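hey so i finaly got around to running the thing on Methyltransferase FkbM domain-containing protein from Prymnesium parvum. pasting the sequence first so u can double check i didnt mess up the copy paste, my clipboard has been acting weird all day
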Amino acid sequence: MVCPTPPSELLFNSIVLGLFAEGKVPGGSVVDAGANSGEWACMYAEAQPSRLVHAIDPLEVNIKSISRKFQPLFPNIRPRVGGLGDKTVTIVPPKRVARARAGSAALDISKKGTVWLDKAPAPATAFSMLRLDDLFANETLGFAHLDVEGGELAALRGGARVIQRDRRAVPVLTVELHVHDDPAFTHELLIFLNSLQYTVLLVEEVCGVRYDCRNLLALPKGLGAHFRTSQVLRVAATSERLFVVNSSNILTHAYALACTRGGPCCHDSRYCCKHRCIRAWLHKEMKRWDASDKSSRDPRLFTRLEWLSAKTSLTDLFGL
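ok and heres what it spat out for the 3d tokens, dont ask me to read them lol
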């Protein structure tokens, strides 16, 4: 393996790479939106050398790093400064910005507009918000991962035409989401994915600093028979690490009792769903569940590893 192993999300990475290896992902290019420092784009490019991998990020320093470190190894990587949304606009950073470093995240693109994160550096230069419909007007999209800090719904709306263009080759989508940060947004996102005819699966694995961060795997409903034969999905589902979710039940996942507003780990939205509180809460829940009739959800089904503490390779796990 040439690419560095991504430092987190071992389960999610394994599922996605497994679907590629099984030939379950339709033909076409890959989009890694919110590419950050590029480990995931490199992973996709190495696993699928015949596909173009579009690595998109608003920070120019990230794109320069990807171009320098990974593109020479895998020429199928296409780094690009920008973001994804539902309209083409230019985002101008504030006049006073901190100096960015590779791997930084700078902004939260939400329904309220662009919000510059308090403790994160902003891009030093203006960048364009792009639509998937425009980017793929003459190119086939096979897989897209959206880690766009609150802009997931806008990115999907900006790609609805491409996503629905060919019902025989609908792309596989993955979305990173803070499940309880904005329940109305989460609800709306799941409704929209359903309107695009996707079955949505939640990967029970922490994917960020907030412990309600989860990756969603969206599979085309019209290709259900195609995905039912996937051994990767079968293993993840039977291990209770992959759950079918919709707008009605998703808010019962991802430490729902602890991370909903006003819950024991979310008295203050600025310090919501952090690992120390979750660990203490989960310990209490295990004690309570052990003493009960065990009719409620088994707390052991929750992710119990801290973010970035999961082993990241078979070498780490088994010494192979």
